[in-house]
Amino acid sequence: MSFSVNTNVGALVALQNLNATQQELSQTQTRINTGLSVASAKDNGAVWAIAQNQRATSNALNSVKESLQRGQSTVDVALSAGESISDVLLQMKEKALAASDAGLDTTSRNALATEFASLKNQITKAVTNADFNGGNMIKQAGTTIKALANADATSVITVQAQTLTLTALAIQASTLGTKTLASTAIGLLNTAIANTSAKLSQLGTGSKALASHLTFIGKLQDTIDAGVGNLVDADLAKESAKLQALQTKQQLGIQALSIANQAPQALLGLFR
Fold first, then answer.
1. Contact 112, 177 (CB under 8 A)
2. Domain ranges of the chain
3. Which residue from 260, 83, 53, 105 is spatially nearest to 162, judged by alpha carbons?
4. How far apart are alpha carbons 232 and 163 in whole angstroms?
């Protein structure tokens, strides 16, 4: 056994071990503070890069969801207006049927004609007010929805506009001034009611497609976020237990270093 006051090997070894413990302790504390086992590229470059790419996809899906929601709202506003128009058409047919009665007096016919004209105005107002976010799917040259369907904008969900103006329904000139005109109006209204129902069916199918895809995108985003968590999230229970062990190891390392630093003092005993 040799002794030297120039080189304390025991102290050097104890210091190296203590530094290693301190480094592990710092890493564990960072994981507990951030909740991440891979917080930056220096922790694990490959895993961090994969996680970043998946985060980018998840963030992009937020824009997809917003696009789908805007599209769905635009379609739903058009549907609400279209359903009101369908109800008004039924009332118009009722008035036309009443006006087709040959025994109807002039006063009653004029009253029905006035109500009929008022109902046509209601259709025009419903069409005009069916705007959402600058889009109107039942107006002349209506808005066709093309909502984003994926994170790289290479796919869209299309919902075609369905015009429900008086002109599109071919009832703009209908009146109830005479029995003949009332009978003609009945035929036109039957066609208008059937066409309106078909157009609303198309809009309803489109709204359902947007809602279904929105649900899918939400689930996809949740799955991606969970996958990122599996890659980079720290096991806090494990890290907490490791923290306690390292703190104990740190204390022991400090004591070991203290003991090693006292070793040269033993040399003084050789000179007494």
1. no
2. 9-35+234-271, 66-232
3. 83
4. 51
pLDDT value, residue 13 = 77
Q: Which alpha helices (H) appear in the chain, and where do they start and end?
A: 9-34, 45-99, 106-128, 179-232, 236-262
List, for residues 85-125, the tens digit of each pLDDT value: 999 999 999 999 999 999 999 999 999 999 999 999 999 99
Cα separation of 56 and 70, whole Å? 22
Q: Helices 236-262 and 9-34, interaxial angle, to 10°?
A: 160
Please say whether the beta carbons of 162 and 202 come within 8 A. yes
At position 60, the amino acid (one-letter code) is: A
Please report the pLDDT score of residue 272 as a whole number: 58
**Alpha carbon 105 to chain centroid, angstroms:** 60
- Percentage of residues in the chain with pLDDT exceeding 90? 64
**pTM of the entire structure?**
0.77
Q: Across the strands, what pairs with 156?
A: 148
Per this entry, what is the length of the chain? 272
- Tell me, what amino acid is at 242? K
| Residue 212 DSSP class | H
Burial 169-191 (b: 16+ CB within 10 A, else e): bebeebebeeeebbebbbebbee
Handedness of CA 130, 132, 135, 137 (dihedral sign): negative
Bridge partners, 135 (sequence order): 132
HSE value, Cβ hemisphere, 13 Å, CA-based, for 181: 14
What whole-number distance in Å separates Cα of residue 172 and Cα of residue 185?
10
Residue 132 pairs with which residues in a beta bridge?
135
Q: Which CATH superfamily is domain 66-232 in?
A: f41 fragment of flagellin, N-terminal domain (1.20.1330.10)
